[in-house]
Design goal:
heterodimer; A: four-stranded antiparallel sheet; B: six-stranded mixed sheet
Chain lengths: ~120, ~110
Amino acid sequence: EVQLVESGGGLVQPGRSLRLSCAASGFTFDDYAMHWVRQAPGKGLEWVSGISWNSGSIGYADSVKGRFTISRDNAKNSLYLQMNSLRAEDTALYYCAKGRGDPTVDYFDYWGQGTLVTVSS
Amino acid sequence: DIQMTQSPSSVSASVGDRVTITCRASQGISSWLAWYQQKPGKAPKLLIYAASSLQSGVPSRFSGSGSGTDFTLTISSLQPEDFATYYCQQANSFPGTFGPGTKVDIK
């Protein structure tokens, strides 16, 4: 059974940093692209970032480019999102999602339960 | 970026009803479209990809059609567990954008 478990969310002040993690199991992690997708409270879905199986190809939404960094550790079956210079508009539930192919534009066939990031002073 | 719109924004229906949701892309996306179901407090779930391919484990009452700019998701006979919000998403060009969602609730 595919499982994706996010962690690392919390309350953070504007301008500060946070690192999210996603632990994957139930599939061959290093065969697939992985993604972060977020959902602001009461709002729709927004793709944030994706990374290819070997970290050779990475993509970011314009809204986070230059502030967020995605990475993965295939030996640990883990995905990460380093979030710097956080803004109030980054407040959202952040989902880790398994991709089917392309790290920059993809379908998401499994999702974690999300970790909540709240940016507020 | 490609803009995705959905109609209606909400629909009230009864168990057993046939429900159709429409998604439109601001430019042609061939068949690079997915549909997701999201229940309150839960993560989205992939239902349909490539416009009409049913994801493994998804009941056959769900079907998708369309290509280019216009797409539909049809639930042939609505079941109690189908009351949820449905999102379309294009996977044709960066960044993969989502529609605003269609809420299906109980009539």
